[in-house]
Specification:
118 residues; alpha+beta; four-stranded mixed β-sheet; 4 strands; globular
């Protein structure tokens, strides 16, 4: 949150960045979020790729399908914009969720996390 989170990174974005932000709320409180950025088509694709970024759901809101519903909304809008594919990088926690949605892992990245104690 605030200076400790991603908010400062979004304060001065390029005006031509095709960034879209999605937010789910529970009882008025932010409960899940994700962003998309449209990219050039991948080889052989009929349209742009919709990149999925910064999917996050605080622990107390997990297991309710919030990020999945946000993803479906974002992908529906991407389809309407002409996107033909979508791609993302998943954490170990997110990988099973994306696999259920049909995403495949053609290769793996190592994820290193630095967390505050306690």
């Amino acid at each position: 949150s605030g200076a400790d989170g991603y908010a400062p990174a979004f304060s001065e974005l390029p005006s031509d960045l095709p960034l879209r932000l999605y937010l789910a709320r529970v009882d008025g409180e932010p409960a899940s979020a994700l962003a998309t950025i449209d990219h050039q088509p991948v080889d052989g694709a009929a349209g742009p790729d919709c990149g999925i970024y910064w999917v996050a759901t605080p622990e107390e809101f997990r297991g309710r399908g919030l990020s999945t519903r946000l993803l479906y909304a974002a992908l529906g809008e991407a389809r309407d914009r002409g996107c033909a594919t979508s791609s993302l990088q998943a954490s170990g926690m997110g990988e099973p969720i994306y696999a259920k949605l049909g995403y495949q892992a053609p290769y793996r990245y190592a994820l290193y996390e630095r967390r505050r104690p306690g």
